[in-house]
Amino acid sequence: MLRSGTSLGANYRAAGRARSRAEFIAKIGIVVEEADEAVFWLECLIESGIVKEALLRDLLAEANELVAIFAASQRTA
Fold first, then answer.
1. Which residues are CB-neighbours of 31 under 8 A, at least 6 positions away?
2. Which range of residues forms the domain containing residue 50?
3. Residue 31 and residue 24: Cα distance in Å, rounded?
4. Number of domain units in the chain
């Protein structure tokens, strides 16, 4: 979770510094993948019973919103 979450931020920052539209699209694609991976790990924590769903519900909702935002950004780019 820590790796996918921090990678998401690092790759988003790199996308903001892209030198071309193509590079931005490629880097934002990585952001989408990392955000989706973070969602996956949150779901695993819930489904395995390691963390109660009530504790992660808001975080999971926000993570899904971020996936949607970054995916929309990738599509419109």
1. 8, 11, 12, 15, 70
2. 2-76
3. 10
4. 1
Q: What is the pTM of this model?
A: 0.90
Integer angstrom CA distances of residue 21 from 46, 51, 77:
37, 40, 7
Q: What phi and psi, each to the nearest 5 degrees, are found at residue 52?
A: -65, 140
Distances (CA, A) of 24 to 8, 39, 70: 14, 22, 12
> CB–CB of 1/45 below 8 Å?
yes
Hey, what are 20's tokens?
Answer: 């071309």
Instruction: Render pLDDT for 3-51 as a digit per residue (tens, 0 to 9).
Output: 888 999 999 999 999 999 999 999 999 999 999 999 999 999 999 999 9
